[in-house]
Design goal:
360 residues; Aspartate Aminotransferase, domain 2; seven-stranded mixed β-sheet; 16% strand; four-stranded antiparallel β-sheet; Aspartate Aminotransferase, domain 1; alpha/beta
Length: 360
């Protein structure tokens, strides 16, 4: 279709970049997407297959996902009326941004979908830079909140792609500044399992605070299950614009089974990934010209010196390992790449490729 025939399309969307996902050649070790590397044991997969085989695929799923809400409520200790589900946390963000007004404010670099979704629904987005040590710039935050029409402050902790986490004191201070400026604070805790600190435990009494979570990072990325903890009034409003049956029957059935039956297994895998992360980080720090950022997530951002990150990315890919080149995403990320924590064997293969690439 010719560009001149797209007059009925919003012009800002024609020039906007979307979220890009690199395709990996067959046999490539995928260390680019923050996935759990372990998967489910065969006996669990067999039991899951039997569980979902009982579904009536000619019928619509439960539009309220009631059983799923009850199970997640039991896991989190959040009352069911305060839970809102989406097809991944991205759909939750989409509904929240559609239902509210004002500016979306977020420190950057951070998860690119905040900006992409805001722009896609016609919301003003205002990013402001983290400090050079990748910590939160409170002075800049306060200034931006005063300059923009009150909307939503989005904070990701641990943050993607930096892997750093804000302290509870910083979060409380930022949420208080936001509230004073008329903003609601959305805390994205997608990587909470690898950090272990949550506002649901420590700051649940703060006003105007919403918490976004997902089960993707701890091992259920294929289910696309995200959820929001919010006041009942907010959940009720989001339910008005939520697409009917947005949580399909397979996701609901599989999630209920897995959370009831194998949550301890997933938690064991998370603990193992934490150990592997710390090992990988320590070994990366020994490689000349490589400086990893201390991570609280299941990935590590690392800066390289004396080597082009683009060339290093291609070299590592040539060795059969896909990482993520984020060097062009923000000025603070210049010279950086991001690697997901894999199995011990995958991590060793990556380390060998990284060492060779830095020497070449």
């Amino acid at each position: 279709m010719k560009k001149e025939s797209l007059g009925w399309v919003r012009p800002e969307l024609c020039s906007m970049s979307g979220y890009s996902v690199l395709e990996s050649p067959e046999g490539t070790i995928k260390l680019d997407a923050m996935e759990n590397p372990f998967g489910l044991p065969e006996d669990v997969r067999s039991r899951l297959a039997r569980e979902v085989s009982s579904l009536s695929f000619n019928r619509y799923p439960d539009p309220q996902a009631r059983e799923l809400k009850e199970v997640v409520s039991g896991v989190l200790g959040v009352p069911t009326p305060r839970l809102f589900f989406g097809n991944g946390s991205d759909e939750v963000l989409l509904n929240l941004f559609l239902a509210t007004s004002g500016a979306i404010v977020s420190p950057e670099p951070t998860f690119s979908m905040y900006r992409i979704i805001a722009k896609s629904v016609g919301r003003p987005f205002r990013g402001f830079s983290l400090l050079s040590d990748l910590s939160l710039d409170m002075k800049a935050l306060e200034r931006v909140l005063q300059e923009e029409e009150p909307g939503i402050l989005v904070l990701a902790t641990p943050n993607n792609p930096t892997g750093t986490a804000y302290s509870m004191e910083q979060i409380a201070q930022a949420a208080t500044l936001a509230s004073q400026a008329g903003f609601t604070t959305l805390l994205d805790e997608a990587y909470y399992p690898f950090h272990g600190e949550s506002v649901l435990d420590g700051l649940s009494d703060l006003e105007n605070l919403l918490v976004l979570r997902t089960f993707s990072k701890m091992g259920l990325a294929g289910l696309r299950l995200g959820f929001l903890s919010a006041p009942e009034e907010i959940v009720g409003i989001l339910d008005k614009i939520r697409l009917p049956y947005n949580m399909d029957a397979l996701t609901q059935k599989a999630a209920v089974f897995l959370l009831k039956e194998v949550l301890p297994l997933l938690e064991d895998q998370v603990r193992e990934i934490r150990v592997l992360r710390d090992e990988l980080q320590e070994k990366m720090s020994r490689i000349s010209g490589v400086s990893p950022v201390p991570s609280r997530a299941n990935f590590i951002l690392f800066r390289v010196f004396g080597k082009s990150p683009e060339a290093l990315f291609q070299f590592i890919l040539g060795k059969g390992i896909l990482v993520r080149d984020v060097s062009s995403h923000h000025p603070l990320l210049s010279g950086t790449l991001r690697v997901t924590v894999g199995t011990r064997e995958e991590n060793m293969i990556f380390l060998n490729a990284l060492k060779e690439g830095m020497r070449s």
